Amino acid sequence: MDEYADGEVGAHTFPVERAGDLEDPTRFRFCSREELLETLGPTPESAVADLGSGTGFYTRELAPFVGTIYAVDSQPGMHEQFRDLGVPTNVEFVTANVSSLPFAEDHLDGAFSTMTHHEYADPQSFATLARVIRPGGRLVTVDWSADGDGNDGPPCSERLTAEDTCAALEAVGFETVDVRRRPETFLVVSRR
Ligand SMILES: C[S@@+](CC[C@H](N)C(=O)[O-])C[C@H]1O[C@@H](n2cnc3c(N)ncnc32)[C@H](O)[C@@H]1O
Fold it and tell me: What CA–CA distances, in Å, run from 3 to 8, 146, 155?
C-alpha cells in the first residue's frame, strides 16, 4: 500500500509468503473461538463476514455456528491457501478490499476481523462497513494494540489503540458496546 510510509498504520499487508504462520495454533492465546462467538453472537441463520480472512484460521472456527460466512480477503493467494486447507460448505469467498465490499446495503448480520483492522483502517473501509452491516448488527474487531509491548505482531507504530478504533467506528455511525484491553491486543464490539 504505497500511500502509507513504512512504519505507519496501513503500511503493510500480511504477505502470502508467510501464510503458514497464520495456521499456528498458539495464536489462540490472543483470541479464541469462544470469545468471538460470545461477542459476535451469531445465530445458525446469520450471514457474517470475516474481514481479512487469510488462510481461514478463524473462518473455519466460526463456520459451524452461522448460516453463511463470507471469507473476505484482498489477496487471491490467501484464498488459494485457504482452499488447500479445506473449506466448510457454508463459506463463500469474496476477493475484495474492505473499502469496496460487494454486498448490498444491510446485507450482513455481523462481521469480525482478527489482527487485520490496522491493515484496512481508513475512512472508506469504515464507511463501507457501516453500509453493509444491518442496523443492530455487530462488528467485532480484535487487533494488535498500540499500547502493547510489540513482542508479537507488527511494530507498535503500525498499530492502533482501542480508543482509536472506537472513535473511527463511531464516526461512521457505530455504537461501542464493549471494549476489552489485554496486554498485547484489544477487542472492540460495535453495533451498527
Ligand atoms: C494478519 S492477516 C490475518 C488473517 C486472519 N484474520 C487471521 O487472523 O488468521 C491479514 C489478512 O488481511 C488481508 N487484508 C489486508 N488488508 C485488507 C483489506 N484492505 N481488505 C481485505 N483484506 C485485507 C490480508 O491479505 C491478510 O490475509
Answer: 10, 21, 18
